[in-house]
Each structure stands twice: as C-alpha cells, then as structure tokens.
Design brief:
By secondary structure, this protein is α+β, with helices and mostly antiparallel strands. It has helices at 2-67, 154-157; strands at residues 81-86, 89-93, 98-99, 103-111, 117-129, 132-143.
Length: 162
C-alpha cells in the first residue's frame, strides 16, 4: 500500500512538471507574438513615413521644375542630390540632409522620355535596426509642361471634327 501511494505521489510530481513546462511554452509563444507585432507595427510606421517623405520630395522637385524647367539643367544625371529648404524655397544640395533625425532622402536624375522630360528617382533610407537598413524608392517623371510634347501628322491637321 505504501509503494502504491509513493508511486501516485511521483506521478503527481511528473504531471505538475509537465503542466508547468507546457504553460511556460504557451506563455513564451504568446509573449513572442506580442513582441513581433510591436516590431512589425514600428517597421510599418517607418515605411509609411519614408513613403510620405519620398512623395514629398517628388512634389518638391516638381515645384522646382514648375517655376522654371531650366532650373533642372544644373542637376547632372546619376549624381546624388538631397532636398533642402533655403530661404523658404526648395533646393537640391550635394550635402546629405536628414529628415526627422532619421531619414535621408536622395534624388537622382536620368534621361526622360523625350528632350523635355527627366526621370526622377527618389530613395529614402533609414536605419531600421542596428543590424539592418531599409529604403523606399519612388520613380517619377518631371516634364517641361510649357514645351510641346508632340506635333500632329499633316494628315490630322486639316480634318474637320464632326
């Protein structure tokens, strides 16, 4: 009888240890999912802010071009430029500028679709974690809206519209 009771106590101890181990594993899984969710939310927020900065940079360059498209002539293709505000107007500078003490918005020009346009590539980069950097890239075109984009062929010029 005493050995049967001792065996039951031993089984009870094993059951308690298994229950504690199982609860520890479940708790670890739940806590890990909360930490992962928090980190994912922070990454999504950073990516969203970077996309906003990239779009703002494209709009700023379009603003520079809208004033006078010749303003873009001084910017050479495949050179890194950074958005800067000087005396209440947008400018592109060669020195690195950070936005929100974290993001860097870099602008590169290349040939456009025709002689009156240029391709604009904006890359916003930031340090996502100490081990990894992240970036968002937006490509757009800037054109001289005052310049003609195409001429109609002679066959279309003399037709009447009915």
């Amino acid at each position: 009888m005493a050995t049967k009771k001792l065996r039951q106590n031993g089984l009870l101890l094993v059951e308690i240890l298994l229950a504690v181990a199982l609860m520890s594993i479940i708790t670890l899984i739940i806590l890990s999912s909360f930490v992962y969710g928090r980190d994912s939310t922070a990454v999504a927020g950073d990516r969203s802010r970077a996309a906003q900065i990239a779009n703002m940079t494209v709009e700023a360059v379009q603003n520079i071009a809208q004033d006078n498209y010749a303003n873009l002539d001084s910017y050479t293709d495949s050179t890194d430029y950074f958005l800067d505000v000087s005396s209440s107007s947008w400018q592109l500078a060669r020195t690195t500028k950070t936005i929100d003490s974290r993001f860097t918005s870099m602008v590169k020009f290349s040939a456009g679709l025709n002689s009156h346009s240029r391709q604009l590539t904006v890359t916003v980069s930031w340090q996502a974690t100490p081990q990894r950097s992240a970036s968002v890239t937006v490509t757009s075109y800037v054109s001289d809206w005052r310049a003609p984009t195409a001429t109609l062929p002679l066959s279309f010029r003399d037709r009447e519209i009915s």
